[in-house]
Design a protein that fits this description.
Layout (H helix, E strand, L loop, with lengths): L8 H16 L9 H7 L1 H11 L4 H10 L4 H12 L17 E6 L51 H6 L27 H9 L3 H12 L8 E16 L4 E19 L8 E10 L3 H13 L17 H7 L2 H9 L6 H34 L1
Antiparallel strand pairs: 1-2, 2-3, 3-4
């Protein structure tokens, strides 16, 4: 039982005021602007948008500022705001093949149409602290501008598909369930699983993916393709009778290629894992693809070796960081009645045990007297 704490309004108001002071910090230090967070902490902003299921860099930056850099608290703020927004329609499925790629790499083919585009990446940095960043007024170096690519960039897995070497994805015209409007339930089909993983906690999804690479699920894939860029969002306007562009979003997409030895129902071939998230979130997209592939064991006729990443209920029920945080942090709220009842129970059990021990200790003396 949870009980309200009476007379705590003043303490709560003071706590909020103190929190605001702590968030601001030393007032002699210039305050962070939303633009600074959006532009210079772009990867944090991308994570908040992805796990908050809302693409709005300015709003995500504001949430990070309000949450003092606590990513999960910022995600919570974004989701809470998202529930207040009216829903006036649905966009068309995005065409990632027409993405304007800032980064596009493949670990399976060296020479691919469209080329390898390293783009902005930490992959080849030395991971040494750059103390020049502590200086003020420094302008970053400018990368050499290349020729913009205007034609669509085909997916690498299309080349394997032409030879029938990779599992063909079925075109499902059924509208998938919307996890942001309906509660998660089981059994969960693949579209619902992908939604849950896409907005799941990056650290949790990463640990599940890592576990499959270490043998808990036998899932060591190749990155068929990883691409980061902008895609157009189209919406069908009934009055016009056709779809129009209403904007664009930045996304990260990953397709993994996994070896598959075949089963009773499927021939030997490659299979896919898929990940797609808002913003520049490579680690999350790759992790998502690995977990997606691990959860496909049943439809592929593979053996379930009991790995955590193969258990759909375990993965999806524990992936959501907002839900996990709420359940975890609620235990610091008043539980006085609960604790008092357990305290009385422990006291009663201890008294009964002491009485029984005293009777047991006295019994030998009674037998001797008799």
């Amino acid at each position: 039982m949870y009980v309200a704490v009476k007379g705590g309004e003043r303490a709560i108001d003071n706590a909020h005021t103190w929190l605001a002071e702590e968030r601001r910090g030393d007032i002699s230090v210039e305050e962070l602007s939303i633009a600074q967070i959006r532009e210079q902490l772009a990867l944090a902003v991308a994570r908040v948008m992805a796990e908050g299921s809302l693409f709005d860099p300015d709003l995500a930056a504001l949430a990070i500022k309000q949450a003092r850099g606590d990513m999960i608290e910022a995600v919570f703020l974004i989701r809470a705001f998202r529930t207040t927004l009216p829903r006036f329609g649905a966009s068309e499925p995005i065409d990632t093949g027409a993405m304007t790629c800032d980064r596009r790499i493949s670990a399976t083919f060296k020479d691919v149409p469209g080329g390898q585009v390293l783009g902005p990446t930490f992959d080849y940095t030395h991971r040494l602290i750059d103390f020049t960043l502590a200086a003020t007024g420094e302008l970053p170096p400018e990368a050499q501008a290349g020729e913009p690519r205007t034609e669509p960039t085909p997916h690498v897995t299309e080349f394997l598909d032409r030879e029938g070497l990779i599992q063909t994805e079925e075109d499902d015209t059924k509208t998938p369930r919307d996890l942001t409007r309906e509660p998660l339930d089981f059994p969960a089909d693949r579209p619902l699983r992908l939604q849950a993983i896409a907005r799941g906690d990056e650290g949790f999804i990463l640990s599940m993916a890592y576990s499959t690479q270490r043998g808990y699920g036998r899932n060591h894939p190749f990155v068929g393709e990883l691409r980061v860029g902008q895609v157009a969002i189209e919406m069908d306007i009934p009055e016009l009778g056709f779809a129009i562009d209403i904007g664009e979003v930045t996304i990260t997409e990953c397709e993994t290629v996994n070896q598959f030895m075949g089963s009773k129902s499927e021939p030997p071939q490659f299979t896919r894992g898929y990940g797609l998230v808002f913003g520049h979130c490579e680690r999350k997209a790759i992790s998502m693809a690995l977990v997606d592939r691990a959860l496909r064991w049943e439809e592929l006729g593979e053996d379930n070796v009991g790995a955590p990443a193969q258990d759909v209920e375990f993965v999806l029920s524990h992936a959501d960081n907002v839900q996990a945080t709420g359940f975890l942090e609620h235990i610091k709220l008043p539980h006085y009645v609960d604790f008092q009842s357990e305290l009385e129970l422990i006291r009663k059990l201890r008294a009964e045990a002491e009485t029984a021990k005293a009777e047991e200790d006295a019994s030998p003396f009674q037998e001797a007297a008799e």
